[in-house]
UniProtKB/TrEMBL annotation:
GO MF annotation list: DNA binding; DNA-binding transcription factor activity
Protein name per its UniProtKB record: DNA-binding transcriptional MerR regulator
Record Pfam families: MerR_1 (PF13411)
Occurrences of domain HTH merR-type (ranges): 1-57
InterPro entries given in the database record: DNA-bd_dom_put_sf (IPR009061), MerR-type_HTH_dom (IPR000551), MerR_fam (IPR047057)
Keyword entries, A-Z: DNA-binding, Transcription, Transcription regulation
Superkingdom in the source lineage: Bacteria
Length: 122
């Protein structure tokens, strides 16, 4: 299948497919005319990358999942390196929650102070 077919079937743009290839996530073979040729397995890879990126993983962080698929596994997240990548992302999310909670508390304090100033309650 050609790049436009892969993109359509996987629900991404041709530009996204080219980006995934540039990041080493896809390794298409070349036809005699120089066109890239993709397989149904590549559709699975692109869908997996798309899903992982939507969870906030970077392209680089998707490598363990793609390698897991390339190793013949039906799921990309059953390999030890994939589980480690999940744990890393969860830790990043936890840290962001802490940061956002602190930011919210600061904003709440500033709002309360501004409201009391405005109403002359100071």
């Amino acid at each position: 299948m050609h790049i436009s077919d892969l993109a359509a079937e996987a629900g991404v743009t041709v530009k996204a497919v080219r980006y995934y290839e540039s990041q080493g996530l896809l390794k298409p073979r070349r036809e005699a005319n120089g066109y890239r040729a993709y397989t149904e397995r590549d559709v699975v890879v692109v869908r997996e990358v798309k899903a992982l990126l939507s969870l906030g993983l970077t392209a680089e962080q998707t490598y363990p999942f793609i390698e897991c698929l390339r190793a013949g596994n039906e799921r990309a997240d059953v390999c030890p390196a994939s589980l480690t990548a999940y744990r890393t992302r969860i830790a990043e999310v936890d840290q962001r929650i802490v940061e956002l909670t602190e930011l919210r508390a600061k904003l709440t304090d500033l709002l309360a102070d501004a409201e009391s100033w405005r109403t002359g309650a100071r």
